[in-house]
Specification:
Rossmann fold, 5-stranded parallel beta sheet, alpha/beta, 11 helices
Length: about 290
């Protein structure tokens, strides 16, 4: 599995980014060179990356189970501080694209990335349009470490699945949604933008023994409730995908449940749900589907 990540998602670069915003590129470049040997603190996605790379334990170096690639709008020159920090933290990240201010998303597909995480919303939208699972995350300091196990949670509609059912809900209300799902309970849902990443994650999980000691645990966390849950379960069965946990919340706020699960990251298409989640876990907004039209 290959994950591409931006430098501001991996490290806390907010001081230097604020300098760039207020004083421009030359001041930013001068600051990065001046502080080249000052190590960067971990950013919002750092614990996730560390856990992903830890899955390579026991795998041959030439054939890692997981590869993380740095995608950055820095130049190679100003990016030297980032690689110094990568080396200090012992992260096995060897490939990178430094675009020197230009949009870096064109390089994501040639690297074969299954997932792209960035703090730059337009890059995320372009990656999604190119068929790569992608999410925007707000830059922040690394969240508190809670579990050694890698824990990833997903919303369903417009993330794992297509947004057809969500469109029915928005256009016709909950009653129309319930009838739509009840009448189509035996029809598999279409795949959403994270279907490919879910498949890659499933293949990765199969490299390890199942059970409580497995290094990866996944969860579906959805606003759906019974009877609309049936179509979701049958779809995952049709796809041959196993999610370790499924939470059908019936509209309750997702944040406390994600906190209870201990997610390292949660993916959702709704900014409202992301706001609820961010108080508890790292959360990636997937700007796809009817919730993000216009």
């Amino acid at each position: 599995m290959i994950v591409a990540i931006s430098s501001r998602a991996l490290f806390d670069l907010e001081d230097s980014h604020a300098l760039f915003e207020h004083e421009g590129l030359e001041a930013y470049a001068r600051f990065q060179r001046l502080h080249e040997d000052d190590l960067l603190a971990p950013g919002i996605a750092f614990p996730l990356v560390r856990k992903l790379l830890a899955l390579n334990a026991g795998a041959p170096p030439e054939a890692p189970r997981v590869e993380v690639i740095l995608i950055s709008r820095n130049s190679a020159d100003t990016g030297l501080r980032i690689f110094n920090s990568i080396e200090h933290h012992g992260l096995s990240i060897r490939r990178a694209a430094f675009s020197n201010g230009a949009p870096p998303y064109p390089y994501i597909r040639p690297f074969g990335a299954d997932l792209f995480l960035s703090t730059h919303g337009e890059d995320v939208r372009k990656a999604l349009a190119a068929g790569v699972a992608a999410a925007s995350i707000l830059p922040a300091k690394a969240p508190q470490h809670r579990f050694d196990q890698l824990r990833i949670a997903f919303d369903g509609d417009a993330v794992i699945f297509g947004d057809e059912s969500e469109r029915v809900s928005r256009e016709g209300g909950l009653d129309a949604f319930a009838e739509h799902e009840r009448s189509r309970a035996g029809e598999p849902l279409s795949g959403g933008p994270f279907r490919g990443f879910l498949d890659a994650l499933q293949r990765l999980q199969k490299a390890f023994p199942a059970g409580d000691d497995a290094p990866i645990r996944t969860a579906l966390v959805t606003a759906r409730s019974a009877p609309a849950h049936k179509r979701v379960i049958l779809t995952l069965r049709e796809w041959g995908v196993r999610l370790d946990e499924a939470l059908f919340l019936g509209g309750r706020a997702k944040g406390p449940f994600l906190d209870a699960f201990g997610a390292d990251i949660f993916f959702d298409d709704s900014e409202h749900n992301i706001v609820s989640a961010r108080d508890h876990v790292a959360a990636g907004h997937v700007p796809h589907g009817v919730a993000n039209d216009g």
